[in-house]
Amino acid sequence: MPVPPWRERKKTASVRRPLSYEQIVDAAMTVLDSEGVDAMSMRRVAQELGTGAASLYAHVQNKEELVDAVVDRVLATVEFPELTGDWRQDFTRFAYATREALIAHRDVAKALWGRVPTGPNAMRLSNEVFGILRRIGLPDQLAAWAGPLLFDYITADAHEGSLYAAAFGDADNGQQYFKGLGAYFASLPADRFPHVVELSEALTTGGGEERFAFGLDVLLTGLAAKAAASEALGDSGGDT
């Protein structure tokens, strides 16, 4: 039986549960991983949550603050290795753990460019890195510069890897590209570009892992030399 019009119940507005900061960051991570940092607007994140952008502003002021939160969420997954006393081994393990975390989430490395991460997890990792650099004898100013330099190297490698992954799709396509690039270098006029021609095979040899390990070794070797020179001059940093 139909309900008489005078007995129809009035529709009540559905009650929405208030958003939490963690829910917003979760949604931002979803957008970042599926669409990239450029798509991670306040409006798009709100859409992911089924609400309007205005409801996000009680927790985050703007996209920049949202990106900072996502970056720190990713850095929270980096576990600083237990120190062994071998500073090169300790830093190498940290570098690989950080690189793995950045590679696991699309565009996080890109988001880090032009940005100094200041969240609690970024500070936790920075503090550990600076501690290692000071303990090997780097003067404080060099330690303060070396930390960001090393982190920039890790970020750059992760970002380049994400660009290659987006461009080639799989390893076979990437190998074909570099094979063709090597052939192009070899075909250049030897009288104009003798070194490029002679190095054509070497220039395109080695995968991302080998090249990352090489670059990291060069940086750490340079820091070791700086530390040794500072110690010889009696210009040591703090030992905290």
From TrEMBL:
InterPro entries: Homeodomain-like_sf, HTH-type_TetR-like_transc_reg, HTH_TetR, Repressor_TetR_C, Tet_transcr_reg_TetR-rel_C_sf. GO terms for molecular function: DNA-binding transcription factor activity; transcription cis-regulatory region binding. Residues 18-78 form the HTH tetR-type domain. The keyword NAD does not apply. PROSITE patterns: HTH_TETR_2. GO terms for biological process: negative regulation of DNA-templated transcription. Keywords: DNA-binding, Transcription, Transcription regulation. This is Transcriptional regulator, TetR family. It comes from Cryptosporangium aurantiacum.
